[in-house]
Task: inverse folding
């Protein structure tokens, strides 16, 4: 008996997945060659599951800015902002984020996970209620657990269900905070933000939108789903991450609430962890600049997303509800999903295996994320491999009649 | 307001409608261990309970609930508090 015995069932489930081939939870890149390619098991592999939406991880200017910052300011800050002080870069990045969103304040966190942990656990306190979409990311669930507010789930992307749950709280005192995501990371679907904003107004709630997957991806200026839906005046907090479209690591929250900065001395996941190192801050500033300056990147991403989505859809795969840089393929079972994922890796295509309970409706998914950095040839090669394996595993029908016609 | 045992009966009926449905569910049935519901399935079941009884069950109230009777008692409490 050890203290880890409680993980026996998890261990058993893990062994089942591993027994089928490679271990999807410890995939190893021998070498990362570019935002869209790596060497894995000695083979050149197309990266189709890295959330590198704009392909900025190898941006030349970002790399130079980071290298310069590390030489000028050192490798790390060795402490938190409240204990060890703020570097020029932190303040500069916060100013730029606030300007980018047209908000009065911005706070930078060490990861997006911590941004959710910090904001949710701090702004909603005892006696308040947080209403979260049932399909929320783990960081949202964990942020709720860390705080003292009461937490209520509403049905995914269902504003009427949200309204019903707010109505039930009608006579209960306290603030309400509604939490939704811009793009949901498993199926690539987006929140019905205009309707949610309407419910928010009707019930006098606050609204937080996590734009982790939509920053730099949606909206004419890349400001995410909030911009696309035109509800910037209705949002009280936008949370986001530097770890996806901005190609680095870190998180943030922007807001127009007048006393927002008080959170710097109240929010524990901000106060009690080291701040981001100068090199990261420098590359993020540069990448944010590219999002602002180059709408072409976003168009390229949308074109690429649409190319992969339609090719797979036409081949008969079951995908998420809208074209999105997240293209998720529904698998008929966990076993097929694992076999499919292994076969793709052998064919030189890396994407994500997403299994229950981390997925909506306990679906087994092959989740891909398209990048502006993918060439059409890479996307076509990946699609071809997916279709070939899909046919051989009977996930999609063989096109026998077509083949016979050709013969 | 329904009594706790009436609430338990409704819960047992609703468990019968789940895809993982098992026979012979009683108030003493352990929801996680005996029914094999994972935490997500429990949370989703709680949503349907909220709608059935028109009451909110905050997530922190689920901590410590093991049996159908525990769940019924929590619901009864929440509904009592609401009308008090
Ligand atoms: C919706 C959502 N929020 C937050 C995060 C956390 O971001 P980070 O990787 O910066 O911790 C993620 C990414 O995993 C996410 O998908």
Result:
């Amino acid at each position: 008996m050890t203290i880890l015995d409680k993980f026996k069932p998890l261990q058993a489930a893990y062994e089942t997945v591993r027994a089928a081939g490679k271990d999807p939870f410890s995939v190893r890149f021998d070498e990362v060659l570019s935002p869209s390619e790596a060497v894995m098991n000695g083979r050149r592999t197309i990266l189709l599951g890295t959330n590198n939406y704009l392909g900025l991880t190898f941006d030349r200017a970002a790399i130079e800015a980071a290298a310069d910052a590390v030489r000028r300011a050192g490798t790390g800050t060795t402490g938190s902002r409240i204990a060890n002080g703020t570097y020029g870069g932190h303040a500069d990045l916060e100013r730029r984020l606030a300007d980018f969103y047209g908000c009065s304040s911005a706070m930078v966190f060490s990861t997006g996970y911590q941004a959710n942990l910090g904001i949710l656990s701090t702004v909603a306190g005892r006696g308040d209620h947080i209403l979260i979409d049932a399909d929320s990311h783990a960081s949202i669930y964990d942020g709720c657990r860390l705080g003292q507010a009461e937490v209520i789930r509403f049905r995914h992307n269902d504003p009427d269900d949200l309204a019903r749950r707010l109505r039930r709280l009608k006579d209960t005192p306290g603030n309400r905070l509604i939490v939704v995501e811009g793009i949901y990371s498993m199926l690539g679907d987006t929140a019905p933000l205009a309707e949610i904003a309407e419910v928010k107004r009707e019930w006098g709630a606050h609204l937080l939108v996590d734009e982790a997957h939509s920053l730099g991806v949606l909206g004419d200026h890349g400001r995410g789903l909030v911009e696309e839906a035109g509800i910037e005046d209705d949002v009280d907090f936008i949370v986001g991450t530097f770890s996806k479209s901005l190609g680095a690591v870190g998180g943030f929250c922007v807001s127009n609430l007048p006393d927002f900065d008080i959170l710097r001395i109240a929010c524990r996941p901000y106060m009690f962890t080291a701040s981001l190192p100068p090199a990261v801050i420098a590359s993020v500033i540069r990448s944010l600049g590219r999002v602002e300056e180059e709408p072409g990147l976003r168009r390229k991403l949308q074109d690429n997303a649409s190319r992969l989505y339609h090719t797979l859809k036409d081949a008969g795969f079951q995908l998420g509800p809208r074209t999105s840089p997240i293209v998720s393929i529904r698998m008929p079972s966990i076993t097929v999903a694992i076999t499919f994922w292994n076969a793709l890796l052998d064919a030189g295509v890396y994407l994500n295996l997403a299994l229950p309970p981390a997925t909506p409706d306990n679906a087994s998914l092959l989740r891909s994320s398209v990048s502006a950095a993918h060439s059409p040839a890479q996307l076509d090669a990946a699609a071809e491999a997916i279709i070939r394996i899909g046919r051989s595993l009977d996930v999609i029908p063989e096109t026998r009649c077509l083949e016979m016609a050709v013969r | 307001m329904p009594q706790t045992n009436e609430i338990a009966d409704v819960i047992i009926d609703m468990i019968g409608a789940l895809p993982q449905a098992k026979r012979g569910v009683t108030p003493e049935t352990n929801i996680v261990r005996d029914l094999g519901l994972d935490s997500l399935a429990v949370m989703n079941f709680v949503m349907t309970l909220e709608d059935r009884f028109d009451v909110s069950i905050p997530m922190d109230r689920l901590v410590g609930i093991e049996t159908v009777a525990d769940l019924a008692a929590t619901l009864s409490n929440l509904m009592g508090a609401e009308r008090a």
In short: The longest strand of chain A covers residues 176-181. Chain A touches chain B through 17 residues (CB under 8 Å). Residues 9-47+295-406 of chain A form a domain with the Aspartate Aminotransferase, domain 1 fold (CATH 3.90.1150.10). The pocket of pyridoxal-5'-phosphate is lined by residues A 111-113, 116, 137, 139, 181, 185, 210, 212-213, 241, 243, 251 (CB under 6 Å).
